[in-house]
Amino acid sequence: MTNPAPPAAPASTRERLLDAAAELFYREGVGVGIDALCRRAGVSKRSMYQLFDSKDEVVAASLERSAPAYQAFLLPPDDDRPPRARILHVFERLEESATMPDYRGCPFVAAAVEVKSPGHPAALVARRSKDALTAFFRGEAERAGVKDPALLARQLTVAFDGAGAQAVVQARGLDGLAVATAAALLDAAGLHG
């Protein structure tokens, strides 16, 4: 007989707040009130304010916490595929996401657009996330020997964000449009198979 696994430790108040924030802010936007957030997390407002100075900090912390999982979903694993295939992997994952009924676009773009201020803590987290995606594209473009890897990386990021916005606005999947757009950019940059 094997020993049963010990029960998982209950989520901390901070974890419950950040989980609720990530879910609510993605689904309903960062305008969700503190009362709704605390109710969803099962914590008091007092507890929230003991952990965070403001709702702005909660928004930023929830984005920061979700960034590694989002990147792990989008980016390919370290493997020996050629740069083109690794870049297109990101767009394939975007296409896959856009078919989900609860898809609301990139959570980082959504938050940055809602908070408006480029200096808002959530906008800073969003910028770091977008910079990381652009850096991935640039690294792959450099590995492929593209003439202007920085420009291609920025173009791919614009295509990624635009495709995500298109899926949200049209409320439907991308039907290969994101992958085809990325492939056209790669072709134009001379990054073939």
Structure description:
By secondary structure, the chain is mainly α. It has a domain at 56-188: Tetracycline Repressor, domain 2 (Orthogonal Bundle), CATH 1.10.357.10. The protein has helices spanning 13-28, 34-41, 45-51, 55-74, 83-98, 107-115, 121-144, 149-170, 177-188. Helix 1 packs across helix 2 (34-41), helix 4 (55-74) runs parallel beside helix 7 and helix 7 (121-144) packs across helix 8 (149-170). The protein is elongated, with a radius of gyration of 19 Å.
What is the terminal separation in angstroms?
53 Å
- Main sheet overview: none
Evaluate the radius of gyration. Answer: 19 Å
Low-confidence segments, given as residue ranges, are none
CATH architecture of the domain at 56-188: Orthogonal Bundle
Number of helices: 9
| Element-level helix/strand string | HHHHHHHHH
Provide the CATH top-level class of the domain at 56-188. Mainly Alpha
CATH fold title of the domain at 56-188: Tetracycline Repressor, domain 2
Summed over residues and divided by their number, the pLDDT gives a mean of 93
Structural class: mainly alpha
CATH superfamily of the domain at 56-188: Tetracycline Repressor, domain 2
What is the percent of helical residues?
55-70%
What portion of the residues fall into strands of 2 or more residues?
A: under 5%
Q: Please report the total strand number as a whole number.
A: 0
What is the 3D shape? elongated
